[in-house]
Write the structure tokens for this entry.
Amino acid sequence: MLQLPRSMDSLYDFPFSDLEDSLRSEGIKAVHAQEIYRSLYKKGGKLAPGAQRWIAARKPPEMTIVKDLASSDGYTRKFLLRFADGKEIETVLMGYRGRYTACISSQVGCAMGCVFCATGKMGFTRHLTAGEMVAQIQFLNNHLATEGKEPLRNVVMMGMGEPLHNFKELMKGLAVISDPRGIGIAPSRISISTVGHIPGIQKLAEAGKGYELSVSLHGASNQERSALIPINKRWPIEDLLDACRAYSEKTERKVLIAWTLIEGANDSDDHATRLAELLKGRQVHVNLIPLNPTEGFDGQPPSEERVLEFQRIIKATAGIPVTVRQRRGIDVGAGCGQLAG
């Protein structure tokens, strides 16, 4: 597994408790952790000499803008960002009424190989560090500030990569992002998307952090799902839904079930009925996503009428909430499944 070599953690790699430990190890009083966080993430406050010394020994992850693409929808921007080792990822900024949401990448490429996903076709290159995930948030917040806009309110870990495949760095990064002493985005406003990485779901449940879990299902039988998501052969539907049930019981939160609708593949009345039967009685919320076009996959999204009928059948059969995801940034390749570095 390829990993980024580094001789020193970056400024953004430290959850608060890790920062305190780092200060102690360097003979600096841990009390200075508060002022360091305030300096890094709140843009203010004086620094004691020890805190200045600690900061001076580290840098943020080096990250340059390769492309800045604004969607014609007027609300979405996609940034192609390059790290010091030359590897590139994409980050998306989405504007909504009264708030901004960041779609953040967790890996360069992805090892899951979902057939309709541009990132999956890239293969896996390396994990991102916690600091590289935090750096994406810092970059977007700085961008919003220069335009006189409010900072990010929501984060979705739905960019390039399988977040739970990079569990340790993910949790470190989100600890900084969600810490009120740091960036301060509440855990309830952070969503982690997975194609069904069961060990990661189990560890996330045990962590008890209150993040929203979004699980990409896309097929109501193992045969159908494996054709779209190869990792299903390792972690089949029945085991995945057991893990989701355990997550809901442990966290007392509903699991978001993402279903990408592909014309002729998983959008029929029968598919809707079987999905509803599969999810009936579970603590879930279904999010329907009409397929976004990607190079090398011939599938097409269904008509709006078909999407609405699929939604109606699930509601009528299972009595669970079902929404249709708003399509954003499709013209600049910023939609779900389109990120390709």
